[in-house]
Amino acid sequence: MGAISEKLERQERLSGVGCQRKRKEDLRFIQGKGTYIDDIKLPGMLHADLVRSPYAHARIKSINVEKALALPGVHAVLTAKDLKPLNLHWMPTLAGDVQAVLADEKVCFQHQEVAMVIADDRYIAADAVDLVQVEYEELPPLVDPRKAMDPDAPVIRPDLEGKTQGAHGKRVHPNHIFTWEVGDKTGTDQVFASAEVTVREQITYQRVHASPLETCGCVASFEKASGDLKIWLTSQAPHVVRTVVSMLSGIDESKVHVVSPDVGGGFGVKVGVYPGYVVAIVASIVLGRPVKWIEDRIEHLATTAFGRDYHMTGELAADRNGRIRALRVHVLADHGAFDACADPSKWPAGFFHTCTGSYDIPKAYVRVDGVYTNKAPGGVSYRCSFRITEASYLIERMIDVLAQKLGIDKAEIRFRNFIQPEQFPYRSALGCEYDSGNYPAALKKVLEAVDYPALRREQAKKRARGELMGIGISTFTEMVGAGPTKTCDILGVGMFDSCEIRIHPTGSAIARFGTKDQGQSHRTTYAQILASEIGIPSDHIVIEEGDTDTAPYGLGTYGSRSTPTAGAAAARAGRKIRDKARKIAAHLLEVSEDDLEWDVDRFVVKGVPEQFKTMKDIAWAAYNNVPEGMEPGLEAVEYYDPPNFTFPFGAYICVVDIDRFTGEVKVRRFYALDDCGTRINPMIIEGQVHGGLTEAFAVAMGQELAYDKHGNILGASFMDFFLPTAVETPKWETDYTVTPSPHHPIGAKGVGESPHVGGVSAFSNAVIDAFAHLGVTHINMPYTAWKVWKTIHQLGLDK
Ligand code: PCD
Ligand SMILES: [Cu+]
User: Fold this and answer.
1) Are residues 249 and 367 in the same domain?
2) Which EC number(s) are documented for this chain (predicted)?
3) Cis peptide before 275 (omega within 30 of 0)
């Protein structure tokens, strides 16, 4: 008894994997001691502001900067003409396209960057922006992606004239970017031709935008004397930025130093490189002084990368009993004026090919056409592993549509189609290899928790009274953790990730990673992984990320990849430490290595419990008493290339009541069960789920970057773009099951994006379910009271 409780006590002292350790980050944050980009202030620093286009599509006839330059305090006004000699007026995008850094003779979207003013302070810079005179000649705008490939559509990108080959194959129209196909077209068509039942639906996932508290920005500082370029950047991927900056500028990569300090939220929008960064860097080089550029909220929403804008046609072929036989999907993807999608290079539509979801669908075919329009560029994964939200939304909507057509219960149809636990590893018809899962168990648990049959009975009664109540189910699967490097790279750099750890003589440690926290709590949870592996309490392990001078190379944090990649690297680096520690312990105890066994925080001689060396003892010895021939010190580096993605999943259920007279949707209940394999910190997982669900609620209920017919953006401030506060946000109930990933060293899967991916369809399915008995099969998001009321009114329910 005594020995067991003593062991438990030691285990507890580690605060390792599974512990509800409080966030290490918060001590600084709640005291206002965070360091975000705007907190960086360097001696002699200048401030930049951008001149932006009021038009969606126009020729630039002239730019006159004289008045702006004459304003006291203005140091420079840069235009494309100034960048041209440096060959920096255009830059490559992550998607293999090019993007104008400052508009070159023509603007292609509203708010496009036209010139940068650099001044003593931001106020002078803003005043000078108003003094820059730009003469435009308006061109007809192309706003509707469905018209992008019309024969007489306005040509958006004359720079691509005659280019019949794009980064992802043939281009068939001046506004065509790529066509991407996956799956068995003929086989799928055959199944459809002879299917007992088919359904088809047009589903648009609207253009949306992440809204981190901190907008994008940077401070660039070029040291003329040494030739060093230092950039502070609110970035999710600092190493990638260093590589890109070096490639673009020709400055030796060792002379480029990127620091990503505290990041005030990322959500995918801080992965890429934006024109503002490039011009700020050029300005610093030209002026020999540090230059700060920070977006305001309108600039952020209107110009830095949007998410989604997928116009999908989904079709399912099935048996009369609801067993799905095939899936066929066409997507028209609106990429805006430049293809600046942030996806792994080989995947122009990200991981949209996960659109068979959690279901065992024998045949599938997907085709995605990307087109240019006069809108801001982007296509980042707003809390989504590269288009998985779109994919999951499509299949979760379609399975409901099929259920309605066949009159099968929406939970039941899922059970009939789930990939079964014994089918894993499961290879989907579109080529994803799912590592593990137990979907029926998850859905069963949720249905029991909310008493699903009782909810359906209540709904039937309400329907009889003319009331609107909806029950939405979402049983989603995600594919997160890009790599492996053989299929995933960014501009040729493989998507591994890294951990480097050093144990100090007194038994504390520092570990550095190639990922970059933006609020996810890596300082807290990485230390927990290491604590469990090396037996040093997590409170004695400092975690660092974000400085390219010190951190090992890594691809950054997005796509819920940190736990699957860098988290795995941490576990494996820890094991390397333990391997060396075992040798040192054997030497100290004068026994053979095989006579030792690991016990929480020490090596013990087998069968002789009183003979042991703790990790603390070993750390000290590593610096003064190692076995003959061994290097002193105790450190390890691991670059981890995962063999596969991890496949977290979940079962969500959402219950809504809709006011028949106002169209207001009230979320009565939201029950979310997530399975992310081994849980490192349950409290942090719960926080991630709360955050992701709130963003899902925002997208489903109100977020939209709409454009009018002239290409004016309509949703570019928080007056119009819905950002839920605590007042609007529903109460979340969370639950879990644990299905460890078989290939991850500690069985963990990513979780950061799951609630967003699964949440959006749960809300959507709930709202539409409220109208299902009236024959409604789909309503596009967002479900504002106005839009829902229109449906009610069309159905004559408000009488
Ligand atoms: N199993 C498990 C898993 C996980 N975890 C935890 O949780 C978290 C998360 O994780 P992950 O999933 O791995 O993820 P990451 O990578 O880290 O992150 C990322 C994500 O994350 C999320 N979340 C968040 N939060 C916050 N606060 N902020 C932010 O910004 C954010 N973002 C978002 C997003 S969007 Mo993308 O980018 O779109 O792609 S992607 C994303 C961390 O802390 C970790 O550790 C645990 O514990 N366990
Ligand atoms: Cu931004």
Assistant:
1) no
2) 1.2.5.3
3) no
Which runs of E-coded beta strand occur in 16-125?
46-52, 58-64, 74-79, 90-92, 98-100, 106-107, 113-119
Do 103 and 248 lie in one domain? The reply is yes
Distance from the alpha carbon of residue 207 to the mean position of ligand 2, in angstroms: 15
Q: How many angstroms does the Cα of residue 249 sit away from the middle of ligand 2?
A: 22
Give the atom of ligand 1 at the shortest distance from the alpha carbon of 380. 38
Per-residue pLDDT tens over the stretch 355-408: 999 999 999 999 999 999 999 999 999 999 999 999 999 999 999 999 999 999
The predicted pLDDT at position 506 comes to 98
Q: Which of 267, 490, 520 to mutate to test the pocket of ligand 1 (most atoms within 8 A of CB)?
A: 520
Give the count of domains, the chain.
3
Catalytic residue numbers, as ranges: 236, 383-384, 753
Nearest-CA residue for atom 6 of ligand 1: 685
Flag residues of the chain having pLDDT under 50: none
pLDDT at 3: 83
Q: Residues, the chain, total?
A: 799
Phi-psi region of 138 (alpha: psi -120 to 50; beta: other; left: phi over 0): beta
Amino acid at residue number 598? W
Q: Do residues 574 and 17 lie in contact, with contact meaning Cβ atoms separated by under 8 Å?
A: no
Residue 163 counted as domain residue: no
Residues with CB under 6 A from ligand 1: 212, 236, 265-268, 381-384, 518-522, 525, 557-563, 676-681, 684-685, 688, 691, 748-753
Residue 208 lies inside a defined structural domain of this protein: no
Shared-domain flag, residues 111 and 223: yes
Mean predicted lDDT score pLDDT of the chain:
97
Range of the domain at 224: 37-141+215-263+270-303
Q: Are strands 169-170 and 165-166 parallel, antiparallel or unpaired?
A: antiparallel
Distances in whole angstroms, Cα of residue 143 to Cα of each of 26, 77, 297, 375: 44, 31, 23, 7
Domain containing 774 — which CATH number?
Answer: 3.30.365.10
Contacts of 434 (CB under 8 A, 6+ apart): 419, 424, 425, 426, 427, 428, 477, 479, 647
3-state SS class at 247: helix
Question: Are residues 177 and 339 in contact, defined by beta-carbon separation less than 8 angstroms?
Answer: yes
pLDDT at position 2, please? 80
CA-CA-CA-CA torsion sign (14, 16, 20, 25): positive
Asked if residues 156 and 373 have their Cβ atoms less than 8 Å apart, the reply is yes
Report the nearest atom of ligand 1 relative to the CA of 752: 12
SS3 for 669?
A: strand
Using an 8 Å Cβ cutoff, are 289 and 46 in contact? yes
Report residue 411 as tokens: 């939970």
Give yes or no for a contact between 387 and 329, defined as CB atoms under 8 angstroms apart: no
> Is residue 577 within 8 Å of 583, Cβ to Cβ?
no
User: What tokens were used for 733?
Assistant: 């109930």
Angle among Cα 477, 481, 484 to the nearest 5 degrees reads 120
Q: 10 Å Cβ neighbour count for 562?
A: 30
Contact 402, 318 (CB under 8 A): yes
DSSP string, 429-441: TTS-EE----HHH
pLDDT at 1: 55
My answer on whether 244 and 352 are in the same domain is: no
| CA-angle at 730, arms to 727 and 735, nearest 5° | 145
Of the candidates 173, 127, 177, 156, the one whose C-alpha atom is nearest the C-alpha of residue 55 is 156
